[in-house]
Structure formats: C-alpha cells, structure tokens
Design goal:
By secondary structure, this protein is an alpha/beta fold. It is about 30% helix and about 25% strand. It has one domain: Rossmann fold (3-Layer(aba) Sandwich). Helix 3 links the parallel strand 2 (about 50-55) and strand 3. The chain is globular, with a radius of gyration of 16 Å. The chain binds S-adenosylmethionine (SAM). S-adenosylmethionine binds near residues 32, 36 and 103. S-adenosylmethionine binds near residues 84 and 112.
C-alpha cells in the first residue's frame, strides 16, 4: 500500500519497485548523482539493460563511480552523456523509466532540466512504453522554471488516452513547494498505432 509519509522520490521508487525484476529495458532519464540508476541496476535480470542519461560530465562520472562501488557497473548498464530527448537514438522499447527533474544537488543550480526537452523526452518514452510498463516523473517546482516544467509535464500526461494509460499524481499539499510525483502505467496496447 502507498505510504504517503515517504518523499516524492521514495514514492516513485515504490511504484517502480512494485513491478518486480526488470527483464527488458530500464531508463534513468536524469542520472545526476546516480541514486536512481543504482536503484534500477539492483532490479535488473541478467537479460535486462539499463540506460542512464545526463547532460553533465560530472553526473556521468558520479553515476559510474556509484555503480562501480556497488559492483553493478556491468555490460547491462550504459551511462550516456546526452540529452534524454535523444532517447530514440539508443532504444525503441521501454519497460520502466524514471525522470527525476530539476538540477544536480551539490552542483551548478542553473543547469536544470527544461520544459521543452523534458516534454519531448517524455513523449518519446511514453510511445516506447510496453504494456504493463511504468514511468515515474518527479517534478520540483521550487526552482526557477519549475512551474513551467510542471505545466509541460501535465500537458503531455493529461492527453493520454485512459483506455491505454493510467496516470496519477501524488502531491503533499501541506508541505511547502513540495515536489510532485507522477506515476504512469500503460494498461493496454493501442492497436491503431503500428509502432506501439
Ligand atoms: C535532480 S537531478 C537527478 C538526480 C538523480 N536521478 C539521482 O538519483 O541522483 C537532475 C539531473 O538532470 C540532468 N539533466 C538536465 N537536463 C537534462 C537533459 N536534457 N537530459 C538528461 N539529463 C538532464 C541534470 O544535469 C541533473 O543531473
């Protein structure tokens, strides 16, 4: 059962963990300090593959170091310095994906995810999502541009056809400027679209 005492990120983890072992493709759309990549790496079966993206060299280094420290930097994991909006250069199918938006804690706060690229990346990942696949998105509204990013995420998610997707959000309404967690699950295939 959902534990609402948890943080926005912990709620995202709980939603993704409920899928159990990952046998297909997992994506960390914003690897940052590597915590979500590590979380996903622990869920991989031998045949699964994990792709982690970030635009900052520092994030790539930190993520590699964290996985290495845990003995999980294997051939099943690719850590890529590129924007998540270019996801289609690397893969075409997704079992789980996580977006933890905003800036890299302990780094330059002016380098954050941006509404346009977030929207493009989310659109593509939703198209690639397998039936029963899950995506979590944690949006921070306290930093500059955070509210616009929230609107961009909502714009994509509210258009999803409820015959094919379940979408929910969790917001701690009595916590000041609390991050919001969006939870997405593809529940059925849209047979009218050949590519999904
Ligand atoms: C809140 S941090 C991610 C935290 C991370 N998941 C963790 O577990 O430590 C957000 C990250 O998004 C990255 N980012 C910003 N724009 C991006 C983009 N277009 N594609 C991929 N990553 C991006 C930032 O560099 C930053 O490291």
């Amino acid at each position: 059962m959902l534990d609402i005492k948890k943080s926005a990120v912990q709620i995202a983890h709980e939603f993704i963990a409920a899928k159990g072992v990952i046998t297909g493709i997992a994506v960390d759309a914003t690897c940052g300090n590597g915590n979500d990549t590590l979380f996903l790496a622990k869920m991989l079966s031998n045949s699964a593959k994990l792709y982690a993206f970030d635009i900052q060299k520092q994030a790539i280094q930190k993520t590699k170091a964290l996985l290495n420290q845990h003995g999980l930097l294997s051939d099943n994991v690719e850590i890529i310095k590129d924007s998540h909006q270019n996801i289609d250069k690397y893969l075409k199918s997704i079992e789980v994906a996580m977006f933890n938006l905003g800036y890299l804690p302990g780094s330059d706060h002016s380098i954050t995810t941006k509404p346009n690229s977030t929207k493009k990346a989310l659109d593509k990942m939703i198209k690639f999502l397998e039936v029963k696949g899950r995506i979590s998105v944690v949006v921070y509204i306290a930093h500059e541009g955070g509210t616009q990013e929230l609107f961009a995420v909502e714009e994509v998610l509210k258009e999803l056809d409820s015959r094919f997707f379940c979408v929910a959000s969790v917001k701690h309404v009595n916590r000041n400027a609390a991050p919001i967690t969006f939870l997405i699950e593809r529940i059925a295939k849209d047979e009218s679209k050949a590519s999904v």
